[in-house]
């Protein structure tokens, strides 16, 4: 069963959270509410999220301050943040949002189709990264098993290598399709994230190829995707 991605919704107004849930429910992912910056930071201590939708204007800790805390934490610094705001103070206000670490900035009232499409991109990227981490974990186990087999005079388990290669090929195909889909997008952050994912996949493919019979006595180091 494919695990659902978690999306963090941060807004101090319950009606806004309800509206976001109504828009994003069609994605069939796990939606987590937070009514303040402090509550959002608490949720981020224990759960992994694909994307954060963060209201700018909140009492106490506002969106800018909350984003600054998120980006300072090693565990959460790479989670994409989409700022939502009902006000527009011009270019300086928008620049402050990007400087705080936002990957996008949407003014209310926003187009539900546009918001859903933007969130979908980051959910897809998150799921591809999860698949990549799983393949890397399997590859590390395979490398350890192969080394033990050689030490005992055994043979390389070619069947598992073939299965790993097939699974990796499926992820590579999905990542390539996602990159092509983003080629015409103006969202530079999403394009950069997809390119980073493809670089990870290339490194993992090289490491897997190094384990194939006849590839040499040594194996390339196995990457550790973050």
Automatic annotation (TrEMBL):
UniProt-listed Gene3D superfamilies:
3.40.50.2300
The segment(s) forming the Response regulatory domain are 6-123
UniProt keyword annotations, A-Z:
Coiled coil, Phosphoprotein
> Which SUPFAM superfamilies does the record associate with it?
CheY-like
Q: Tell me the domain of life.
A: Bacteria
Task: Report the InterPro entries cross-referenced here.
Answer: Bact_response_regulator, CheY-like_superfamily, Sig_transdc_resp-reg_receiver
Keyword presence, Membrane: no
Q: Which residues form a coiled coil?
A: 161-188
**Pfam family name, one:** Response_reg
Q: Which residues carry this modification: 4-aspartylphosphate?
A: 55
**Is-annotated flag, keyword Signal?**
no
List the protein's name: Two-component system response regulator
From the broadest rank down, the organism's phylogenetic lineage runs: Bacteria, Bacillati, Actinomycetota, Actinomycetes, Kitasatosporales
């Amino acid at each position: 069963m494919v695990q659902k991605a978690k999306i963090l919704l941060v807004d101090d107004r319950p009606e806004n959270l309800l509206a976001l849930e109504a828009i994003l429910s069609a994605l069939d992912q796990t939606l987590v509410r937070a009514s303040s910056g402090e509550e959002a930071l608490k949720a981020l201590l224990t759960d992994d999220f694909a994307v954060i939708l963060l209201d700018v204007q909140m009492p106490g800790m506002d969106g800018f301050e909350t984003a600054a805390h998120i980006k300072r934490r090693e565990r959460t610094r790479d989670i994409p943040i989409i700022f939502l705001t009902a006000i527009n103070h011009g270019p300086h206000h928008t620049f402050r949002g990007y400087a705080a670490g936002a990957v996008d900035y949407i003014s209310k009232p926003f187009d539900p189709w546009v918001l859903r499409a933007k969130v979908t991109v980051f959910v897809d990227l998150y799921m591809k990264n999860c698949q990549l981490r799983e393949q890397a974990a399997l590859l590390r186990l395979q490398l350890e098993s192969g080394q033990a087999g050689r030490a005992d005079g055994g043979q390389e388990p070619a069947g598992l290598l073939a299965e790993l290669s097939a699974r990796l090929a499926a992820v590579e195909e999905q990542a390539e399709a996602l990159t092509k889909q983003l080629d015409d997008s103006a969202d530079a952050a999403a394009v950069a994230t997809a390119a980073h994912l493809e670089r990870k996949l290339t490194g993992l493919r090289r490491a897997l190829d190094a384990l194939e019979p006849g590839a040499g006595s040594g194996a390339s180091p196995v990457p550790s995707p973050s």
